[in-house]
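Convert to structure. Protein one:
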Amino acid sequence: MTRISFIHTGAVVIPTFTELAAAHLSGIEVHHLLDDKIVADLGRDAEGTGVRERLLDLGRAARSAGADAVVFSCSSISGYAAGLSAELGIPVLRIDEAMADAAIAAGSRIAVIATLATTLAPTAALLRERAGLAGARPELHEVIVAGAFEAVSGGDRARHDELVGAAIVEWAAQVDVVVLAQASMAGAAATVEGAVPVLTSPELGVRRVAEVLAGSGEH
């Protein structure tokens, strides 16, 4: 049986990916690995705290457990995917790549909303990378929602969603598409009705994983 290992930087998204995998990855075994200090260490000293080596170790653990592919569920670490895939010898997929492609297709004015700078920067970089491949030059607006990360870290999910929802409404009036940079922000999108697409990575990303596996004959 094909096995997929999701590597997470926060436990809060594991139920979401378990549910999405059940819906879109039928017949595939799902394995979860977690390092919940990576995002904090990226913000302090990625090299000094060995983030790349830790991700490589998690990837090796996934491979040892029989994983046919690894999926990074966090945009903050997506930039490490290509290099680690070569070292591990199995695909390392980025959960936010499909979201980036959908955003580029949706319009030329894109607002990228995040609650952490460590996630905003790599998401914006990914959008520029995918835009370049598509021959597009979008106008990117990079937005940090002040106080949202602190709220959810303190257990106040409602306040987090309220703050993110307000940012979505504000920017939806100014752009063609809104991108939420973190998988953990997906719940906030359901709290507002926007006039433009509001894209989140979990479902789009899992659908892309299914497409990749189907293309490789493993699904």
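Protein two, convert as well:
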Amino acid sequence: MILKIVTLFLIVMGVLAMFGKLHWLGGKRLSNAKCRACGRYRIGKGPCPCGKDDRA
């Protein structure tokens, strides 16, 4: 019984991971979250702390 539950859990988690990678369902692209100037990941919608990225 436990083996069935664990197997079902792993299958459900795999399906959720596949849906998370689909960009039209809200998956995020990490390349858009990087600063073009320094390459650091930006958190939030504000500018990069380096001050060189023109995106806000």
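Residues 18 and 27 are 10 Å apart (CA to CA). The longest helix spans residues 2-21.
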